[in-house]
Amino acid sequence: MSISKKEGKLFDMQDRAILRALLQDSRKSFQDIGQEVGLSTTSCWNRIKRMEESGAIQGYTVKVDLAQLGYQDTVIVQVNLESHSDATLYEFGRVLETIPEIVEAYLVSGDYDYYIRIAVKDTRDYERLLREKLYKIPGIRHSKSTFVLRTLKKSDTPFG
Predict the structure, then answer these.
(1) SS3 48
(2) Which part of the chain is the HTH asnC-type domain (predicted)?
């Protein structure tokens, strides 16, 4: 049964079950994943290989608790730029990539041009980041910062 199609590749319920297993623990063996989803080890390996080759699986990583590493606060920053030229958008995005505390950045529609998620140690660390990095980016017309009080849900996929 076909669930979705991307560039001619079909991903069925078993593929999605494999992805859920990998999202839960990407260090599981092919044998363990196969048992969990009702497939042989070889069939499971073939499906994972196909999903890697198609780009559906883009890599393997670890989940990190930022608070354990000293980053206690998350700030959502909404930004408006003075210009929307290709050069301005490109340069703004390029500079954002150089700031390690920025963990996500989105070009969005609506009242603001960008939503940026930033990990900081505390309010003083955020103030430092604003002065030393964010406000030095040319072309920012306006920004609005909101501290996250509690994370209610966090997932990289709609089926994870």
Answers:
(1) helix
(2) 11-72
